[in-house]
Amino acid sequence: MSDLIPISKAACIGGGVIGGGWVARLILTGIDVAVYDPAPDAERIVGEILANATRAYGKLTAVPLPQPGTLTFVGSIAEAVAGAEFIQESVPERLDLKRRVLAEIDATAEEDALIGSSTSGLLPSDLQVGLTYPERLVVAHPYNPVYLLPLVELVAGNATSPQTLERAKLIYGALGMKPVVIAKEIEAFVGDRLLEALWREALWLIKDDICDVETLDDVIRYSFGLRWAQMGLFQTYRIAGGEAGMRHFLAQFGPCLAWPWTKLTDVPDLDDALVDKIAMQSDRQANGRGIRELERIRDDNLVAILHGLKGAENGAGWGAGQSLKVFEDRLWSMAKAASLSAPAADFARPLSLHETTVNAAWLDYNGHMTEFRYLQVFGDASDAFLRLIGIDAETAASGSSFFTAETHIRHLHETKRGTRLRVETQVLSAGGKKLHLFHRLIHAGTGACHATGEHILIHVANGKPADPPPAIAARLGEIAMAQTDLPVPDGAGRFVGQPR
Amino acid sequence: MSDLIPISKAACIGGGVIGGGWVARLILTGIDVAVYDPAPDAERIVGEILANATRAYGKLTAVPLPQPGTLTFVGSIAEAVAGAEFIQESVPERLDLKRRVLAEIDATAEEDALIGSSTSGLLPSDLQVGLTYPERLVVAHPYNPVYLLPLVELVAGNATSPQTLERAKLIYGALGMKPVVIAKEIEAFVGDRLLEALWREALWLIKDDICDVETLDDVIRYSFGLRWAQMGLFQTYRIAGGEAGMRHFLAQFGPCLAWPWTKLTDVPDLDDALVDKIAMQSDRQANGRGIRELERIRDDNLVAILHGLKGAENGAGWGAGQSLKVFEDRLWSMAKAASLSAPAADFARPLSLHETTVNAAWLDYNGHMTEFRYLQVFGDASDAFLRLIGIDAETAASGSSFFTAETHIRHLHETKRGTRLRVETQVLSAGGKKLHLFHRLIHAGTGACHATGEHILIHVANGKPADPPPAIAARLGEIAMAQTDLPVPDGAGRFVGQPR
């Protein structure tokens, strides 16, 4: 899969919240990761972040994830970087410490391994001082949670080579991220500069009792936070300016800059009194929710937002949703490659091609999996079957696809949140443009059949019903033939309301 | 509907982007609005905003919207406010102008009408100077687009009465908004203070060529913009701080405030050179897209994000998604009240109980509505039918509900994004615990039938199949009886694969 994912082994130096987030993103994209962190609880922290990320990715992609990479914890930097094509440094934000760690990475890593630093404020040129191969170091600053937020700010130092920047774009892009190159290095780059400005103003508002932290958070998340999840500051203002244009809009702003609308010419003193006030208000806002629960809620929300943005612009995706779309396309290609290499001997029994878990968003007001989600699971199983015979988004784009013409569903048991489900798929018949599939939805724990789905699919080429291309017809025929002697499953051929 | 929507007539003074947004929100909630704006193009601008908002609301709510309110343009403030229980002032941001307009509103409006000012920066106490009834004036500062973003900052002046603040919370809440009370009045309140701080920092970054406007926007929308659509600054930092807690996290921040991470001790000069630079970069970023197109994309994205957040927390909603949930619940109550008062004569033909529009998130990789969304629409239509006979989330909680046992779907035409769909529902039979429904999915434009759904539903009481309660059985029997003579629809009783 080297053309799909440009690396197969990575090293993460530092396993805190940020380092752990990098580990999770790499592992879930199928890359082996060696971690070095001398902290005694690093393995636990990384494990918890990986668990969070695995849970989130189970909902994030509409695509089967690749086999996860192997995670190992090692006792030294040298062990971690041995054989790694990509190294991410995420140690605490102290120049002396970072320089020491980077020097050790530089001395022991493969000469052409790419090194990214997660620093949120230090200058890359300062980090490059004293390195033997400084040209392969670039600042690659992510945002928490690293496994869900796509942004990585790439900042070159004086010694960073153009090739390093290009390779970094390729690698981080393959991880589903949005690499953004910052033109000049300054302390804190772009994102943290913006955050720092807003943060200082926020501290004044709390200190002066204009509002409490919950109100301030609500002001953000019910207004411009929603705007900024999909368009930034300037595009938003361009729209607000309307037909008169950006130039006219800016002209109106000139005078405002002289108004007393910010206290930013002063720096607030973050003394004990202010820290106490914020900590107490923050406890009240959390309303008894622990960090793990808040993380779960945040991740679910981010997944939902990313899903929403993925569907934008006729399914091409917008902003962070486009990053997800590109990532999924890559995963589809990997899944297809894996399907095509499956051995033929498996075909003589019903096929297990799709598994899923009932998540919270699938429940109706009775607390059970809602009816259309059954068809979603059956549809996903049909898609998995189509991939098996060589049909996917790519062949669809070139004009060859299957469409469902008819469906019959029987609901046999209620299905609760968290249930692991497995679909067994049987080909009832296949010939010409017609494909007759039968799915059984099995509770993976009890083995009970919770629902059945019977479907007629029609092959369509360039908008018209037509026989599938020979290679696909052959693959389909092979499976149908192998399943000829399977018994007709219970419930097949029923009409709605037919007595049992 | 006075207990659901506390006002029936409103006045909007000022019909620009903000005033027009208020008009749209009010009209679409079923409230009559009179508008006064002396600008010659006010009627056109308000009309365009209302068209945008109508389009967005068609996708926003899963609930039938009420009959829209009546919109009238009038020639004076006195005419606009006559009989209005609620008046929103949205004239340009000049103290002298706002005072003159508010004085005229104050002199001509009903004595107890509530007056909200959309000012984004002026102090309410300054606006109250010279009014006869200053106690009913409150700053109610919204965010663009007003019809989609829930936030309204409520700021009381010295003379504002506590009753006014309570009434304002009630009225703005009924419009689907999130009213947030700011504790003390200061210029620009809370949201615009935060925006102004970030804006000044952004201007420096562009002026100093650290990045261009597109890069800056990408930095926002691929990282903290996603976070802030669902949790604000402090809750996010609480999570980032992890197990060590907010106090520990803040302690780390203290030293940073002394770091050179912002240029905010200076104010940038927004001179011609900087205006030119930003305007040119913004043109490039827009990539040929006009304002109307950007608005449409923005609105679709906001709708998708709000949908995502509405599904959070087991469907209870989170943040702005919770506002949408509360708004929908109110609309459901209105729809149910309307259903229950529908005359029996309507039942003698297939029922039109559910309409929807195909949104981007419903498309498959072929660009058509994906198969399980058909069942979602049929399920929503079944739910609408069940509400009609008195079954809803409330009766389900008390142990009486219908569950789908069996479904048959025929796909007759592909369905594209943006298609307005209407479901026609026919009762094939109803008796005892069994209900046999048939839905036809109609393209509202062409009248073509795109799919049919045939369903057996079983009434369940306290977990067991059982006859429905007498009142529900009676209502159901009345409809079934009225439909006895309707012809059996094409496709009913088919099994999968049956020759036509």
Report a brief summary of the structure.
2 copies of one chain form a homodimer. With 500 residues, chain A is an alpha/beta fold.
Gap from first CA to last CA of chain A: 50 Å
Largest sheet of chain A: 8 strands, mixed
Average of pLDDT of chain A: 87
> What integer value in Å does the Rg of chain A equal?
27 Å
Determine the strand fraction of chain A and express it as a percent band: 15-25%
Strand arrangement within the widest β-sheet of chain A reads 3-2-1-4-5-6-7-8
Structural topology:
The structure is a homodimer of 500-residue chains.
Chain A: E1 9-13, H1 17-28, E2 32-36, H2 42-60, E3 71-73, H3 77-81, E4 86-89, H4 95-108, E5 114-117, H5 124-128, E6 137-142, E7 151-155, H6 162-174, E8 178-181, H7 191-207, H8 213-221, H9 224-228, H10 233-241, H11 245-256, H12 272-286, H13 291-310, H14 320-340, E9 351-357, H15 371-388, H16 393-397, E10 400-411, E11 420-431, E12 434-443, E13 449-461, E14 464-465, H17 470-482
Parallel strand pairs in A: 1-2, 1-4, 2-3, 4-5, 5-6, 7-8
Antiparallel strand pairs in A: 6-7, 9-11, 10-13, 11-12, 12-13, 13-14
Keywords:
500 residues, alpha/beta, globular, 8-stranded mixed beta sheet, homodimer, 6-stranded antiparallel beta sheet
If you had to describe this structure to a student in words, what would you say it looks like?
- Two copies of one chain form a homodimer.
- The first copy, chain A, has 17 helices and 14 strands.
- The first copy, chain A, has helices spanning 17-28, 42-60, 77-81, 95-108, 124-128, 162-174, 191-207, 213-221, 224-228, 233-241, 245-256, 272-286, 291-310, 320-340, 371-388, 393-397, 470-482; strands spanning 9-13, 32-36, 71-73, 86-89, 114-117, 137-142, 151-155, 178-181, 351-357, 400-411, 420-431, 434-443, 449-461, 464-465.
- Chain A has an eight-stranded mixed β-sheet, sandwiched between helices. In chain A, strands 9, 10, 11, 12, 13 and 14 form a six-stranded antiparallel β-sheet that branches.
- In chain A, a hairpin with a 5-residue loop joins strand 12 (434-443) and strand 13 (449-461).
- In chain A, helix 2 runs parallel beside helix 13, helix 10 (233-241) crosses helix 11 and helix 13 (291-310) packs across helix 14 (320-340).
- Chain A is globular.
- Chain A starts with 8 loop residues before the first strand and ends in an 18-residue tail after the last helix.
- The mean pLDDT of chain A is 87.
- Strand 10 (400-411) of chain A pairs antiparallel with strand 10 (400-411) of chain B, so a sheet runs across the interface.
